[in-house]
Amino acid sequence: MSNEDVLVGEKKQCVPFIVCFNKENNEVSSNCRQFEFKGIFCRHALSILIHKIIFLVFDKYILRRWRKDVKRYHTKIKISYDNWSDKLEIQQFDKMCNLFCTVVDLTAGDETKCNIVLEAIHNLKAKLLRIDDVCGRRDETNSNIINGD
């Protein structure tokens, strides 16, 4: 059990939060349900781990977007302050992003159109990976940057 002062109207009220820890499957749950609803590992759950002398947060509670080893598309292009628009890689990246943004605008809100675009992207990705395999230059990190599977 973990207590917290919560503002209710204009008064503070001490609210008890019940936290359950299952040692067998390393699951922690709190009745605040912040992890289930918002992906936030709450301080109530964290305080129980500290109380149990467990100083390692289990992998299932570390969201992918919080990890340092996640590849993100915007980190693919290296920043250069000298003639940045002259670099072929940057020009290609900009062209593809601009076109894709247009496609997103055309499909937003229409599930049929969205499914058509997703299928085309999956097919294009598979085709590009086959070309890399044939040429012997497949880079595993590139195929994991945006994994829509």
From TrEMBL:
Occurrences of domain SWIM-type (ranges)? 31-52
Q: Name one GO biological process term.
A: regulation of DNA-templated transcription
GO-annotated molecular function:
zinc ion binding
| InterPro entries in alphabetical order | FHY3/FAR1 (IPR031052), Znf_SWIM (IPR007527)
Identify the keywords attached in UniProt to this record, alphabetized: Metal-binding, Nucleus, Zinc, Zinc-finger
Q: Provide one Gene Ontology cellular component.
A: nucleus
**Which coarse location class describes where this protein primarily resides?**
nucleus
What superkingdom heads the lineage?
Eukaryota
Transmembrane stretches, start-end: none
Localization annotation: Nucleus
Job of this protein: Putative transcription activator involved in regulating light control of development.
Pfam families assigned: SWIM
The name on file for this protein is Protein FAR1-RELATED SEQUENCE
Name its species.
Cannabis sativa
Could you say which protein family the record assigns here? Belongs to the FHY3/FAR1 family.
